Task: structure prediction
Amino acid sequence: MAWLILVCMIVFPAIGGYYVVRGKVKSLDRLKDQVDEDMRKRLMSMDILGNIVDGPAFETLRGQMSLVASKAPAVMVIDVAKFSAKTTLEGSLTVVRVEDAKKVIATKNLRPIALDPAAAERYQALATDEALGRRCVNADFVEKLRALETNVRARARFQMVNGSVTILAFRGLAKPDELRAFYNGAVGVLDALEATA
Result:
């Protein structure tokens, strides 16, 4: 009789735990599906020539744009816009706002570079090669990045790693005009970068 009580004390909580975990997984899956659908609707509202691809992301001839819930699965709020593209430039370069510079870690290969005073008051740049950094982070590049931030009212971060460019805006963009402004601004930054190649 004692062994039956002992088995019940082990089996019933295990079964209950299984169903609680299963319920949480289903709830998270349902929430993720809702967020993905919201992202898809936002991206389709931009009225730009392109296609929705898995992710979901919006793919055009110039690059791919996606929206991200950066704190998922704990918080499923869409708080980051991301633009990714390819470039012919090699090397690594990161450009961030001065107030966000402490979040970027300088490594053996990625070192801070000196920018001209007008750019340095707002941005910090780290690059694998100082010549590359100075050439790429010129007045036109800085102006395009500043215009992107102004148009979407958000801080931006630029990263290039061996031919792959990523531009992030740290704000939950939802309106079609905001999304279009981010996309167009990111393409402008990419054009300014490629003009230095």
In short: Residues 41-194 form one domain. Residues 96 and 104 are 8 Å apart (CA to CA).
